[in-house]
Amino acid sequence: MSRKEDIKVLNFIAEAGTLKYVRRSGWWVLGIKDAETVAEHSFRCAVIGYVIACMEKVPPLKVLLMTLFNDIHEARLNDLHKMSQRYIKLKKAEDKAFSEQIASLPKNIKDELAGMHAENRKQNTKESLIARDADILECLIQAKEYHEHGFKNAFKFMKKAPRFLKTKSAKRLWHLTKTTNLNEWWEKLSEFKR
To answer: How wide is the angle at C-alpha 159 spanned by C-alphas 156 and 162, nearest 5°?
Structure first.
């Protein structure tokens, strides 16, 4: 690649880095001032996607790509909560932002990301269903964590979303999430041993 192409790639990487500063907006209505960022959400979403893919015996690479790049358009559009989404054609705006973000990338990268994005939008492959489940499950787990940290209204976020889960593995993980103390992992690690 030429220096000019390398700069375009670097610009794309730098733009993706802005997601470390974009806060997830749905939590504002609960008064959560320091909600997780889009980058933090995307990271755990990718971890969940990988795990569900393995549980469902699906090769995880596409799922990882879909989860990592699912919200990259938010570097340009910000994270828009459900109330704001009722006033704009969000999918159209997301697709336009994503297309512009990848437009100047080398053809092989652009083609792979465009194909992955289209497949994820159609939701007709096992990988795309798992990626969507990972996104939903990450939000549900985050809501449960906020609820356990004293934000009582976070419970409201856990009512509707579970019915959109498609895979058996995601549904099982959600059931466990509802019935498990999510602080248990660190509480056991911090127990004093002699």
So the answer is: 140
In angstroms, rounded to a whole number, what is the distance separating the alpha carbons of residues 140 and 137?
A: 5
**Which segment of 30-39, 161-170, 183-192 scores lowest on mean pLDDT?**
183-192
Q: What is the pTM of this model?
A: 0.93
Q: What's the confidence (pLDDT) of residue 39? A: 98
Question: Could you tell me which CATH number the domain at 3-189 has?
Answer: 1.10.3210.10
Domain chopping of the chain, boundaries = 3-189
